[in-house]
């Protein structure tokens, strides 16, 4: 089977959109599945529908993997993106050859090629997704490093080189899953300017000529479909070693001036991208409804016998629990128009019921302590503040969280080993969290609840101070132990 490239598609008589040549106007730190199923799809469609006429240079954030860059070179930057899921209750699957990528650079082995991009007058946009750990200030980085180890260090050197050439700055779109990602990236760059003693004129140029935008991204991306790849390639008629897959739903909220819309023609392409003055309400919507629904549901659902998210949606009790949590306990704590919240919540239900994604509950369970604090606890506190009572489902989800962790009676490799019937499962979290639960492995329901609720390192002081919370959680945990999670969960719906 011929490898995917422009000639292969020509030989097949491919009739879809392709852009063989265009100026490199976008530099992207992050070559992984997420951005390729997200930003590249949007750029490709802006090229097709709005004349954006842009190629993207991918950069491995850390580098050191020349084989990744080689895969892109071998396919001339082309790859197949398959978006699958439900829309209006119907199964949909769409395949598109993405042609907006020009090349992929490995900065560890080709730092000079990356710096050369700083001299490209047409370059205007920088996109990044370097994981949650990517936007960090590493004081060990030096200006003379080739390259600096950290992503902000690399970016600072790149911007400095750009400034020395007397060229324009960039619109920088940070997509990392941290609060105020653009602001954090700017802060790190300024730290390097100070650490390295760089010119005041350069510092002024960074502030005046560059726009660091915080953004909110939303799409579940499942990446390379290892189990299906051979069958997919057979159907497509070519060998594609960098296929990417994700859900149909996508949303990109960009915090910045409305002038961005003049340079990014997403409205003309009818893409789900918005530019707002403050992305915080949209962040709250995503974190509390989408992520919060995951976190509040999955641990109890797993103990109730489910393994994937879609299975939860097929179970009447668990689906009912999730919907009551979202509609009755989370949405009333948010300040966006109720219509927008209801529409987003409805989309969440369809996304969770995606027939093409086997989203593992155990994968979602990773680091649930921090996730519950960030995603669910704000809804709990705000609900109590607004209504003067505890939300039943959210309170139950905390008991289910304790039950999931308290099952860990045995130490494994970097995890605790819990039991679900005859099966075992790994409980993965920060080591200090695992140590805490292991120390309390023999506690009864009241004792473990008391210890957890009063652990200030986990939750601050807020849960311990919440009137009636410890008592309610203890009662829920005792009920879980007595009748099982599913029946106890069903009782929340009565």
What do these coordinates show?
This protein has 494 residues and is an alpha/beta fold. The chain folds into two domains: 271 residues, NAD(P)-binding Rossmann-like Domain (Rossmann fold); 212 residues, N-(1-d-carboxylethyl)-l-norvaline Dehydrogenase, domain 2 (Orthogonal Bundle), CATH 1.10.1040. The chain has 23 helices and 14 strands. The strands form three sheets. Strands 5-2-1-6-7-8-10-11 form an eight-stranded mixed beta sheet. Strands 4-3-9 form a three-stranded mixed beta sheet. Helix 22 packs across helix 23. The N and C termini lie far apart (58 Å).
Keywords:
single chain, 494 residues, alpha/beta, Rossmann fold, 3-stranded mixed β-sheet, 23 helices
Provide a compact summary of the structure.
By secondary structure, this protein is of the alpha/beta class. Helices cover 47% and strands 15% of the residues. The chain contains 23 helices and 14 strands.
Low-confidence stretches: none
Helix content: 40-55%
Number of helices: 23
Overall morphology: globular
CATH hierarchy: architecture of the largest domain: 3-Layer(aba) Sandwich
- Tell me the number of structural domains: 2
**Spatial separation of the terminal alpha carbons:** 58 Å
The number of distinct β-strands equals: 14
- The rounded Rg comes to 24 Å
Strand content: 15-25%
The name of the CATH topology of the largest domain is Rossmann fold
Strand arrangement within the widest β-sheet reads 5-2-1-6-7-8-10-11
Q: Indicate the CATH class of the largest domain.
A: Alpha Beta
Return the structural class.
alpha/beta
The CATH homologous superfamily of the largest domain is termed: NAD(P)-binding Rossmann-like Domain
Specify the biggest β-sheet: 8 strands, mixed
Arithmetic mean pLDDT? 96
């Amino acid at each position: 089977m011929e490898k995917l490239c422009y000639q292969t598609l020509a030989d097949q008589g491919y009739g879809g959109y392709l852009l063989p040549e265009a100026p490199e106007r976008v530099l992207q730190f992050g070559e992984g599945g997420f951005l390729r199923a997200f930003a590249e799809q949007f750029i490709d469609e802006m090229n097709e529908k709005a004349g954006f006429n842009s190629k993207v240079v991918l950069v491995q954030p850390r580098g050191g993997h020349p084989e990744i860059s080689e895969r892109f070179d071998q396919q001339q930057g082309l790859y197949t993106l398959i978006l699958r899921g439900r829309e209006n209750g119907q199964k949909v699957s769409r395949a598109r050859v993405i042609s907006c990528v020009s090349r992929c650079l490995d900065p560890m082995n080709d730092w000079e090629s990356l710096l050369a991009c700083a001299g490209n007058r047409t370059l205007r946009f920088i996109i990044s997704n370097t994981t949650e750990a990517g936007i960090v200030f590493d004081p060990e980085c030096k200006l003379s490093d080739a390259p600096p180890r950290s992503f902000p260090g690399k970016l600072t050197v790149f911007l400095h080189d750009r400034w020395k050439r007397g060229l324009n700055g960039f619109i920088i779109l940070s997509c990392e899953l941290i609060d105020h990602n653009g602001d954090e990236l700017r802060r790190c760059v300024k730290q390097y300017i100070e650490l390295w003693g760089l010119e005041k004129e350069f510092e002024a140029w960074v502030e005046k000529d560059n726009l660091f935008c915080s953004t909110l991204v939303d799409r579940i991306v499942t990446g390379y479909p290892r189990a299906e790849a051979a069958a997919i390639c057979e159907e497509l008629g070519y060998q594609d070693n960098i296929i990417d897959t994700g859900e149909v739903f996508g949303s990109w909220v960009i915090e910045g001036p409305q002038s961005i819309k003049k340079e990014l023609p997403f409205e003309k392409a009818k893409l789900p991208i918005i530019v707002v003055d403050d992305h915080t309400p949209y962040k709250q919507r995503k974190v509390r409804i989408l992520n919060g629904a995951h976190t509040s549901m999955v641990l109890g659902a797993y103990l109730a016998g489910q393994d994937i998210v879609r299975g939860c949606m097929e179970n009447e009790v668990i689906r009912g629990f999730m919907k009551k949590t979202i509609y009755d306990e989370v949405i009333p704590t948010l300040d966006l128009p109720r219509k927008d919240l209801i529409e987003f919540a409805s989309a969440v239900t369809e996304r969770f019921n995606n027939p093409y994604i086997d989203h593992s509950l155990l994968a979602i369970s990773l680091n649930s302590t921090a996730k519950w604090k960030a995603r669910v606890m704000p809804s709990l506190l705000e609900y109590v503040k607004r209504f003067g009572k505890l939300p039943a489902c959210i309170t139950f989800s905390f008991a289910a969280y304790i039950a999931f962790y308290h099952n860990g009676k045995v130490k494994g490799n970097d995890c605790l080993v819990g039991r679900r019937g005859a099966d075992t499962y790994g409980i993965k979290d920060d080591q200090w969290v695992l140590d805490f639960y292991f120390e309390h492995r023999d506690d009864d329901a009241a004792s473990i609840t008391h210890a957890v609720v009063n652990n200030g390192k986990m939750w601050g002081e807020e849960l311990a101070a919440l009137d009636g919370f410890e008592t309610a959680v203890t009662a829920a945990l005792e009920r879980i132990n007595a009748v099982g999670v599913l029946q106890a969960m069903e009782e929340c719906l009565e």
